[in-house]
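Lab notebook, bench 4. We co-purified these components, and the gel suggests they stay together. Before we commit to crystallization screens, I want a quick structural picture of the whole thing.
Request: model the full complex, all chains together.
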Amino acid sequence: MKNRSGRLIAASPSVCADLLYAGGFNAPDGVLYFEAGREKGLILSPLEYGRAKSEASKKVRVFSREEFLDADSPDRSDLALLVNLTERTGISCWNVPSDFPLALADSLRARGIPVKALPGAFFPKREVKTASEIANIAEAERVTEEAMCYARDRIREAKVNAKGFLRHGGRIFTCEMLRSEIEGLLKERGYTASQTITACGWNASQPHNLGWGPIAAGKPIVVDIFPRSDSTGYWGDMTRTFCKGFAEPVVRKAFLSVRKAGEIARKMIRAGVCAAEVHLAAAESMAADGFQTGHTADGIPCGFIHGLGHGVGLEIHEGPRVSPLNRKPLRKGNVVSVEPGLYHPAWGGIRLEDLVVVTQDGCRNFNTMEKELELE
Amino acid sequence: MKNRSGRLIAASPSVCADLLYAGGFNAPDGVLYFEAGREKGLILSPLEYGRAKSEASKKVRVFSREEFLDADSPDRSDLALLVNLTERTGISCWNVPSDFPLALADSLRARGIPVKALPGAFFPKREVKTASEIANIAEAERVTEEAMCYARDRIREAKVNAKGFLRHGGRIFTCEMLRSEIEGLLKERGYTASQTITACGWNASQPHNLGWGPIAAGKPIVVDIFPRSDSTGYWGDMTRTFCKGFAEPVVRKAFLSVRKAGEIARKMIRAGVCAAEVHLAAAESMAADGFQTGHTADGIPCGFIHGLGHGVGLEIHEGPRVSPLNRKPLRKGNVVSVEPGLYHPAWGGIRLEDLVVVTQDGCRNFNTMEKELELE
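Here is the predicted assembly.
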């Protein structure tokens, strides 16, 4: 008998982008996907079967779990199902994603069915977006930018009280209120955002701090919005940093340095450029401006303390990374964020993020919104 | 040397409820959690370290990845880190959740470090909620019910046009609009919902069909709302079925049967009752009303085609299941949905879902909203 390897995913499409990509079908619960020779199949509970028949990708055959379970056996487990699937397809080894669930793999192996975790991406072509994927991401980023313009206007139109805090309609305007308004607007457009960053002052010095409490004038406010389309599953991702009124000189200087680093990076991006080189060029530019990356005397990381960018698609963070660790060339059709940032506990943080698609001889920026710090 | 087993999770807290439960810290990217003897630790990128120090559970020690990586080695992988962690803690075998990533487990094993997937729940006590967890879920369900009342009022206040479709302000009122309004309201309250079900007529006959197009009068509209608190991570879950104007007799009959089945189930629920028995009692009651579970002549599943309920907590679907497959007793502190339903392609679907906490001698219903079908 020939050695015949197949491919297998066991996950929920709502959290597994590979499964959503391959099957074109979203569901809250676990689903199995396999490739055996030319056949591609989705195996679902009878509860999802009818819906999957009409909604799933036409490249994929839809099966009910019942078709792979013995009618007279009480065992309805994934293991029992996969043992039957293996036999029926004549597969002698399953190649699976690196995050395939260990217990299921061990059970299959115990039944004499080899399971091999593939290193790296399970569908490497997910990094190279098709025209229709690019359109989905462009649309997500357009809506993201709409929300960002809204946030800017809310900060611009706020009053400042005697203590230096922003107010709207007589109420103190907080980071939580700004976040909730942004996310509410996105929901109206059919996009889900949570953990939106609206962080002011010291909170902005931690890149993933969501931000809490009253928004203060004269301090940098990092606004990082990353919603997912409820219909397509594609993400947008965008960051701006604002300041109500005048910023401290060091903040203004950091803002200009970050903005310049982003421009330098976007000018370098094209098919064939080494991803790490793009990161390093941005980092060097900021270092030359006097913003070294390292630690404060207290050991707190400061400077440019994250990668320059990451791929965006059906996952908010996917390949290719634009970081010192990725020496590979960028390719036409990659969609990556370009988000230099500078952070310091003494003055806060600045991050400016656009989303671009790599083209043969450059990149196309999905964002058109200007980068301005001080809002009067 | 003594045989010393530890526990290990490698995942992102934003999708791994066990990790959020153990560490009390949310982050979009991968985090490691371990237990070695009495020590419990979270290991994070330097980017998250500062925030985790202030936000994570006080029972857990927070480490930066750098503390477990060799300063002079270019290898910054989870594998390199875990090899060092294993050595430093003197652990001889790691017990991991059943969905631990296969590739990482295989790499550890290849380095001579045993990894064993534990069957079942990694933290079984997650099924038994503490008072503070119950308060979080009760609050989530309160907000969910607020959104449900809003949905009911929107249907009640709609006009009906000559074709029998609902209108608001001169515009046709669609399932998509109702969904987006519900999710927008929840966002304003700090809750994230997506895939909210607002399914009318035939679409309602598929339990997970989200619902599309104009809402028709005289047809059942299943509204299933399940938002997650952005601050606590706990979920609410609630379903009502409405009908604008008069329903067909079979729909009215199904509604009454489902409502009665839910009442029977809630009366049975108490610490010690077998979960499967509760499901079966609800199923039998509906069967006795003439709603058998099976297939239409075309092979489409109809009747009561899902489990009666599921646990709700940091996951929307968690243990204990209230289904024929769970013969175990319910325990005091379990929080479960009670959601009988009936489905048929000819007339649609009815589902009514409340969320209850199991007590010593009964259950407490988090929901107070009445169950009414026809809205005039």
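Chain A touches chain B through 51 residues (CB under 8 Å). Worth comparing against the SEC data before the next meeting. The CA atoms of residues 24 and 58 of chain A lie 9 Å apart.
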